[in-house]
Amino acid sequence: MNAYCKIISAIFEKNFNVGMTYFEFDREDIGNIADDLGIPRPKNLGDVVYTFRYRKALPKTILDTQPEGRYWLILGAGDARYRFQLSGLCHIEPRPGLLVRKIPDATPEIISRYALGDEQALLAKVRYNRLIDIFLGITAYSLQNHLRTKIPNYGQIEIDELYVGIDSQGAQYVIPVQAKGGNDKLGVIQTIQDVTFCQTQTRYQDCIHRTVSAQFMTDNVIAMFELTFDGHDVSIVQEKHYKLVDSASITTGDLTRYKLPD
Questions:
Q1: Is residue 11 part of a domain?
Q2: Residue 112: which CATH number?
Q3: Which pLDDT score, from 0 to 100, does residue 75 have?
């Protein structure tokens, strides 16, 4: 992994000048830089970018160039092409102290027993308990899991789960959902990809897009976020916390609190 740090640091140093807010580079640059450094070329060049998008923090030499309140992201910029870009938000984290709303747990026990990993368990709980409907106030249906597709002028992406929905006025929605469990953090890069997907797919051109992220917290609380991307920065539109419980655990006092406005 140290080799990855050396490669991405060298790419950054080669392209960055003070005052820049973005720059682009090609996938082949990763191999060329490895050659220049005398490091074996990674077998999967794209894994270098993937690592610093989702698994590992960027090297300190790169982080030290970030202006206060801004963060470097690595976005897609087309086929085999990437963009370092400054953003006002890097990770999406639950706010402490938010009201936790108890929801009767409708997850089939057999699903809970055999779910493969935290992310799959979370997506299943969101689906079976209709948390997208509850959170957004519309009727939503799961369309596809782990949708892999290519966005023109951006590159290959994967959406954890895609929903479509309808409201009381008949307006229709497309809702990409990302989910993280355990110690994984929600990242704004996937939100940018999800919004870009909705904006560029002609089949959804008449739909309202609403981008949702879900995160397991401690004590099996599920944090739900609605997010938006204005072309420059990702912003949090709303956040709510839910806990799936047996119905007997929901008291009259709980229901009274839920009647109060946010």
A1: yes
A2: 3.40.1350.10
A3: 87
